[in-house]
Amino acid sequence: MTVTAAPPAPVPVPPAARTGRARHRAVTFALLAPAGLTVLALVLVPLVLVVRNSFALPDAYGGIEGGFTFANYTELFDPVYLKVFGYSLGMAALNTAVCLLLGYLVSYYLAGRSPQRQGLLLLLIIVPFWTDFLVRTFAWINLLSPGGPVNGLTDALGITHGPAQWIPSQGASFVGLVYAFLPTAIFPIYATLRGVDPSLGEAARDLGCGWWRVHTRVLLPLVRPGLLAAALLTFIPTLGVFVIPVLLGGGKNQLVGNLIVTLYTEFRNQPMGAAASVVLLVLMIASVAVLGTAARRLRRRTS
Amino acid sequence: MSGRTRLTGRLPDTVTAWLARGVIVFLYVPIVVVVVLSFNDSDVTYRWAGFSTRWYGVLAQDTDLLSALRVSAEVGVVSATLATAGGLLAAMGMGRLGPRGRALFSGSLFLPLVIPEIVLGVALLSVFGTLKASLGLTTLVLGHLVVTLPYAALIVLGAHRALDPALEEAATDLGCGGWQRFRLVTVPLLKQALLASWLLCFTISFGNIVMSTFTSGVGTTTLPLRVYSLLKTGLTPEINALGTLLVLFTFVIILGAGLRQMRRVLVGDGTD
């Protein structure tokens, strides 16, 4: 780079360096190609195609006819479908709120234990997290069936008298959702809370803060990034769930996930299914944007 | 004064600690109940009628479930292998990129983690529909690859970044070519992470139901799809027996992958 004089004509070094750099680039490309092409061909291109299909006309068999129409979206404004979206958003918000609350509670408990105990307790949360999703869902059919274990307990306590019809119900569906997403919500909250200096809480306590204020004024603001991550990992996936409302809710109160599956497999209306998927995608992008802005504002305030 | 604040601070802490313990118990009650009821002699899952292992016998004879198990195992092995290999190559390739290229590449690699899986499934189905590809093992594997690759990348990338670059440099200085360095240095050093990645990807693929709903075809019903359709007509003790085996399988996977790898993936622990 510092050489200013014209180099003598046949120097073997620069071409070799150039082929070396070209080779380096080729190897890098070859290493990145499998994963990169997978994402390109199996994620990005398909997503573009879904957006395109959401504006297409259906053919006689429910496939894609081509053409261009907004009808698939306007049809989603039918009260039947609007109800599904409203119910889904409410259910997802409620599920997120409960998971964050319980997740914070468990994380706070975990972070206060000795390192060895923390490792053990973390393992206790990892096991249900990796346990098969369907097993964790149908486990609740066992538990909530009339005359089942929970019913036996409430009978013994005198809360119920005889077999209770708890399943299928919206309540059972909700318990199933909380149970499915709680471990997912615990990890990011715990990961952030663990990084918070415990002496901050103690200092606030010594300065006269009560328990409530220690949490709301000191700890919660510090773990907000973890709470935001947990919210993201709970809210959006809840919208796309379709197994739990069918098995525990009796299929009456549907989530967006049920709507998409029904449109694709039962109604065989692919363009409308694509439109519902795009709406879900837009909801996801919107919540990422909202949470991202919240996180950025938070960072600006703390720094 | 300080005694009083201590006291008011301690009581709620005790209460919340018990609540937290209660939540952890809550995580286990359903799993324990599945295991216990799988040994129930009754035809009705939830009414206890004595100890029996007969449902495991019924399970072993269920050819439909066993063939679904085979499909899931095959798809799991292939997609876990592809995802882990792709993750390893990507990790090595990203080490050679500049900071901006790396951010862009990892951004697109982790994109499937934030997109609802059902949308990914619908999207793939649209492509298969356009190409008029028939749904079967290949489409299942491709779908599961989409779902597992980000996890493989997450695990292998983290482990690769924690490696001391001096080790690979030393190998080069000692005359190792690219392939030798890969075989003798990089892979052995990442052995733990690669194993963890493979096992977790296999588990994710094996339990997957959302992606499989859109990518499986006639004759390639996976185990979760089969169980789901059985559950629509009602829970049987046989499914509890299957659930118990799946819980056991979870323990094996966690032991195999190692707690340290798990913690690194889930709560971002350092390599210590």
Automatic annotation (TrEMBL), chain A:
Entries under Gene3D superfamilies matching the protein: MetI-like
TM annotation in the entry: 26-49, 84-107, 119-141, 172-193, 227-248, 274-295
Record has Membrane as a keyword: yes
Any one GO CC term of the record: plasma membrane
Transmembrane helix in keyword set: yes
UniProt-listed InterPro entries: MetI-like (IPR000515), MetI-like_sf (IPR035906)
Annotated ranges, domain ABC transmembrane type-1: 85-291
Principal location listed in the UniProt entry: membrane
Location(s), subcellular: Cell membrane
Membrane topology listed for this record: Multi-pass membrane protein
Keywords: Cell membrane, Membrane, Transmembrane, Transmembrane helix, Transport
Coiled-coil segments: none
Similarity annotation: Belongs to the binding-protein-dependent transport system permease family. CysTW subfamily.
PANTHER family in alphabetical order: INNER MEMBRANE ABC TRANSPORTER PERMEASE PROTEIN YDCU-RELATED, INNER MEMBRANE ABC TRANSPORTER PERMEASE PROTEIN YDCU-RELATED-RELATED
Protein name (record): ABC transporter permease
Record organism: Streptomyces doudnae
UniProtKB/TrEMBL annotation, chain B:
Residue ranges of the TM segments: 20-39, 75-97, 109-129, 135-157, 193-219, 239-259
UniProt-annotated location(s): Cell membrane
Principal place of residence: membrane
UniProt protein name: ABC transporter permease
All residue ranges annotated as the ABC transmembrane type-1 domain in the record: 69-257
Protein family according to the UniProt entry: Belongs to the binding-protein-dependent transport system permease family. CysTW subfamily.
Cellular compartments per GO CC: plasma membrane
Domain of life: Bacteria
Bilayer topology annotation: Multi-pass membrane protein
Keyword Glycoprotein: no
